[in-house]
Amino acid sequence: MKIFLVTLLLLPLSVQANTLSSVKKNKVIKCGVSTGLTGFSAPNSKGKWSGLDVDFCKALSSAIFGSPNKVKFVPLSAQQRFTALQSGEVDVLSRNTTRNLSRETNLGFNFAPVMYYDGQAFIVKKKSKAKSVKDLSGATICTQQGTSTEQNLSAYFRKHKLKLKVKVFESFEESTKTFVQGACDAYTADKSSLATFSVKFKSGFKILPEIISKEPLAPAVRHGDDQWLDIVSWTVYALITAEELGLNSKNIHKHLKSRDLNVRKFVGATKGNGKALGLSSRWSYNIIKQVGNYKEIFSRNVGAKSILKIKRGLNNLWTKSGLMYAPPMK
User: Fold this and answer.
1) pTM for the full model?
2) DSSP state letter for 209
3) For 281, which of 13, 254, 268, 297 could close a Cys bridge (C-beta 3.0–4.6 Å)?
């Protein structure tokens, strides 16, 4: 692990100073995603990717190219993801990655606004006598290497004076497989990952009630390219703003002649926002027309219209007791 971190620190802080020009020249966005996490980024049998993180990449493509399909998805493990972004293998990382201070400073990244508010939880077999994390003292716990869950796990057990035995694995698939086979008494990860796990195995498991950490998951870019950070950040904000304004993929075309000043700026009827970002005046209109607003993306990938059925909770708009809040687009 130490060698891995040293390697990261030695990499140049800004591999590509003008990512937008590079993306336009290549006619594709190289988007780093997970190797497969249902609801966030996973390929089907034909190699077609879908999920909340995938839809963010498509939204970014719509903003830049006016098409959601100018994306090359690069599957990355938790350990591979940071090196891939630093080295320029990918233009943006959209891979259920927690934003924190060390990643923004030591690793030389900037994070865009949060796409999904998550938290670390635990899952055990239904027959387990454990009803709380505190019942897991001395138990063997599986988790994924190279994630913030390892640190959270150690900190929580140390704080509560619990005995910790942990097994770490490089991939989500390997760690959950080991847990299912009985080599571990519990498995810990972001609660959204546990929801994916529960759907895959349907029954025989239960998620314990505690959430032991804050895991704000957000897209990340390299330091040193403010324009690219602005485009990535305002793509997230456009998804949230559209939901606030009541604009979605079905009705946005009708609003092109709206008299509402905020809507007119959003759809590009009043010019200015696109030019400020180096994009066309229709950049945010194209996002919503082609990919949908945040509510649509959430619902079809992880919410009511998906197999995960996760409730909006913290991921609802600020006007509905959630944390999704976008600055004014003017």
Assistant:
1) 0.90
2) S
3) 268
